[in-house]
Amino acid sequence: MPNSQVMPGLCASRPVGPPPALAAGPGGARLERIAWERLAGFGEDNHRDAFRCFRAFCMARRQGRGPLRLGVAATAAFENRRPYTSIGSILIESGRINPREMSLTRLKAWLRDNRAEAREVMHRNQSYVFFRNEPGLRPDEGPLGGAGVPLTRLRPIAADRSPWPYGTPVFIDAELPWRSDWPEPFRRLMISEDRGLAILGPARADIFFGSGDVAGERAGHLGHAADLVVLLPVEATAAAP
What CATH number belongs to 12-133? Predict the structure, then answer.
């Protein structure tokens, strides 16, 4: 195998739990108040930048990841180990959004148009992801996945690490709107390189579509059925779920 295709860092991964000082830390509304107190130290000229930083932080928390345009590269570092609650599910179950209409775009529009209710809904998710600076990342590289290596568009998946550890190859066969608004065949060998708070069980995977608005739109509309074929060493098949 060419050296360019060898990823020695794949055995690494980001820690799930926070440092001891944050192990029993706050969540939800209290954590947001603390963040605002820190941002209040910005000068008046930087207040709008501070607000944009905080808004980007809130969106990254809702999505589990997100690019922060702060002049530095940022990647997920650890989680606060509090229960994850899907705000999309809250909005569907409460009748605020029709399940057939649910997508990332629809979710963001509801939060934007219902600011008074949005904060209360967001606070019901106590799970937070904390970020750290990654000055070594090049602009042309994707964000670091949980495995500790930059994510490449349309090759990595996020999966439950319990049955499928990092580095597991998974062939996906599905009809997905991955290049346009219309479903078309998607048949690719993918690699498990990331994880997500809401991705649980052996039959669930999220595809990394890349960075930017178009990628976000594509990923935000996915919720399709697919056939997953996991490739395992012969000696590991007996223990597979």
Answer: 2.40.240.50
